Amino acid sequence: DFLFFWGAVFLITTTLVALLKKENEELTPTKEETKGITDTYRLLFSIIKMPAVLTFCLLILTAKVGFSAADAVTGLKLVEEGVPKEHLALLAVPMVPLQIILPLIISKYTAGPQPLNTFYKAMPFRLLLGLEFAFLVWWTPTVKHEEGFPVYYYAVVLLSYALHQITLYSMYVAIMAFNAKVSDPLIGGTYMTLLNTVSNLGGNWPSTVALWLVDPLTVKECAGAQEQTCGSTVAAEV
C-alpha cells in the first residue's frame, strides 16, 4: 500500500510537471565545457589529479570508518536480540519530520565560508553514539520479558535514533554545502557529481566491510557442546 500510494504520487506529479512546466526559450544557452562522454571522463580525471581534490577525496573516503559498524549492524543486532522488525520500522516514522526539519536548521550553520566546521564538530558526537549503540545492544536482552519490551525501552531507542539523525545530517549537509561551494560553476554538474559519488562511496564501503566482519568478530558459546568453538557458521550449525 505504501509503495502503491507513493508510486501514484510520483506518476501524478511528474505528469503535471510535463504538462504545466514551460521552458524559458529566451535564455541563451551557456557554453558547455564538455561535448561527450570521453571529454567528461577526461575532465573528471583532470579534477581528481588536483592535490586539494585528491586530499579531500581521501578524507571523505575514510571519514566514516569509525561509525560504520554502529550504522550498519545495530538494527540487525537488535532484531537478533528479539526486537520485532515491525516495531523498529515504526520507529522510523517519527524520524521523517526530523529529517525534513534538520537540513533547514543545519543549513544556517553551513552557509558561511567554512561549511566543513559543522562536519568536524559533529564527528565526535557520532563516534560517541557508536558506543551508545553498543551499550543499547548489550542492554536489550536484560529488559526483554515474555510480553516483549517495555515502553521506556522503545523511548530510549527512539531518542538514540533521533540523536544519531542529528549528527548524521550535520555531517551530510556540511559535505553537500562544501561540495557546492568548491565546485567550478562552469562544470558544476560534473564536479559536484564526482565529489558526491566519492562521498557516497566513503559511506558504503566501510558498512560493507563492517557487515562482512560481524561473524569473524562475534564471540559465540556452544551450549552442550564444549569441544565446539562455534567460530564459523558451519561449526555453529553443527
TrEMBL record:
Localization of this protein: Membrane
The main location class comes to: membrane
Name the residues that span the membrane.
6-22, 43-67, 87-106, 118-139, 151-175
**A GO BP entry:** acetyl-CoA transmembrane transport
Q: What keywords were assigned to this record?
A: Membrane, Transmembrane, Transmembrane helix
What the entry lists under SUPFAM superfamilies is as follows: MFS general substrate transporter
Q: Is Transmembrane a UniProt keyword of this protein?
A: yes
- GO molecular function term, any single one: acetyl-CoA transmembrane transporter activity
Q: Name one GO cellular component term.
A: membrane
- Indicate how the chain sits in the lipid bilayer: Multi-pass membrane protein
UniProt keyword Lipid biosynthesis, yes or no: no
InterPro entries linked to this entry: AcetylCoA_trans_1-like, AmpG_permease/AT-1, MFS_trans_sf
Q: Which PANTHER family match?
A: ACETYL-COENZYME A TRANSPORTER 1, SOLUTE CARRIER FAMILY 33 ACETYL-COA TRANSPORTER -RELATED
Protein name stated in the entry: ACATN protein
**Naturally occurring in which organism (per UniProt):** Anhinga anhinga (Anhinga)
